[in-house]
Write a sequence for this structure.
């Protein structure tokens, strides 16, 4: 008598949806996508033939390629590009042969990506902030403040 062994796939519907979305976005090679999702070559062969996967891939591709999604595609592709460039930026920022100006530019750029540094609330250097409150019928309350950073000079003691 032979025993029946139930083989359970190492993927579920959520994995199929993630896989379809990643493939539709086409930001990384399929091999990298499969590896990140823990999908082996035999499972990949099985998944490709599933009507569920084919449907999810078709829908994901249509959504990703939709005209209204252009800004999101550009944003996602830009983020993927930045992520791929980070290791090189890191290495060059720490390379003693790299010039200080280049290192400074790299650090400024990475700071912007990280959302740190730069000006506060879009105010540049040497500007002033003006708050105007309209109280109606030609009455205004206006507050102006110089927001130019001040440098304090001196010598260490």
């Amino acid at each position: 008598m032979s025993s029946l062994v139930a083989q359970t796939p190492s993927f579920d519907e959520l994995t199929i949806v993630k896989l379809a979305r990643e493939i539709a976005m086409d930001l990384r090679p399929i091999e990298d996508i499969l590896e990140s999702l823990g999908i082996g070559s035999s499972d990949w062969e099985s998944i490709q033939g599933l009507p569920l996967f084919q449907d999810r891939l078709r829908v994901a591709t249509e959504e990703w390629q939709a005209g209204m999604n252009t800004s999101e595609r550009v944003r996602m592709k830009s983020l993927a590009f930045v992520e791929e460039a980070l290791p090189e930026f890191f290495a060059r920022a720490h390379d003693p042969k790299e010039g200080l100006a280049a290192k400074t530019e790299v650090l400024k750029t990475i700071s912007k990506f990280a959302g740190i540094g730069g000006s506060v609330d879009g105010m540049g250097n040497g500007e002033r902030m003006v708050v105007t409150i309209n109280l109606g019928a030609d009455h205004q309350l206006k507050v102006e403040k110089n927001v130019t950073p001040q440098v304090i000079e001196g010598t260490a003691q």
Q: What stands out?
A: Residues 1-8, 119-124 have pLDDT under 50 and may be disordered. Residues 70-93 form the longest helix (24 residues).
